[in-house]
Amino acid sequence: xxxxxxxxxxxxxxxxxxxxxxxxxxxxxxxxxxxxxxxxxxxxxxxxxxxxxxxxxxxxxxxxxxxxxxxxxxxxxxxxxxxxxxxxxxxxxxxxxxxxxxxxxxxxxxxxxxxxxxxxxxxxxxxxxxxxxxxxxxxxxxxxxxxxxxxxxxxxxxxxxxxxxxxxxxxxxxxxxxxxxxxxxxxxxxxxxxxxxxxxxxxxxxxxxxxxxxxxxxxxxxxxxxxxxxxxxxxxxxxxxxxxxxxxxxxxxxxxxxxxxxxxxxxxxxxxxxxxxxxxxxx
Length: 283
Ligand code: SF4
Ligand code: SF4
Fold this sequence. Notes:
Layout: E1 3-9, H1 16-29, E2 34-38, H2 46-50, E3 56-67, H3 77-81, E4 87-90, E5 93-96, H4 106-110, E6 116-131, E7 134-141, H5 149-156, E8 164-171, H6 175-181, E9 186-192, H7 195-210, E10 215-222, H8 227-235, E11 240-245, H9 248-255, H10 260-263, H11 267-278
Parallel strand pairs: 1-8, 1-9, 2-7, 2-8, 9-10, 10-11
Antiparallel strand pairs: 3-6, 4-5, 6-7
Helix pairs in contact: 1-11, 5-6
């Protein structure tokens, strides 16, 4: 059975990528082929922890509207349909702001004259590399581009092909998070066991629950039992998938471009335990 696990966090620096790469390597150590999709398209860095170069690249595009002025009567229905203010109609002329466009296609359907067609606009790159039995795919947004969701959707088109897919989502609670986690079988939220970390976790868990997805939490950098953080999760009915202890070596290893799963004693075993729990193999 194919399964997709999304790893996300309410804020950057919580350890999300380290966990996503660790889970992918734990699967690879079982001899299992796995896809790791790095959907953190503003700053993809799974390849750094895997120590691979992303050589296979292809441009990524998003469809944006183009108006045939010969057919347009300036009715304004397209601008009314656009929830992202990417279109304006001024004196019967349609102005398109492509960099605000989310490529949702609503304007196309709203136009009574059939005056809109979609044209591709480059927004970044989709890149790929192989590492052990891991196929890594990531998206890299062009400098100055603001719309991550269309690129994330293109990265996720590469989801099929292996039994297990790990998605490394973007930090935060924007629509990029929803694009990266939507349709996953399970969302693992990584959060620091601190008041700020738990605040951001609450926001991210609410966003993911809007999608109706099963969710559990990894508390990172725990001191002791992190009893307060565990009580916070219990209050919000958030299942605990695991606690990773405070260990400076993990952050230092990741910061210098190393692979904590391989290089930090105990971290690989923690990831294998976490994987077993996610796969329902451990109590
Ligand atoms: S495709 Fe969607 S976001 Fe883009 S201009 Fe049309 S309605 Fe707006
Ligand atoms: S909905 Fe169509 S006809 Fe109306 S202003 Fe927009 S492009 Fe022109």
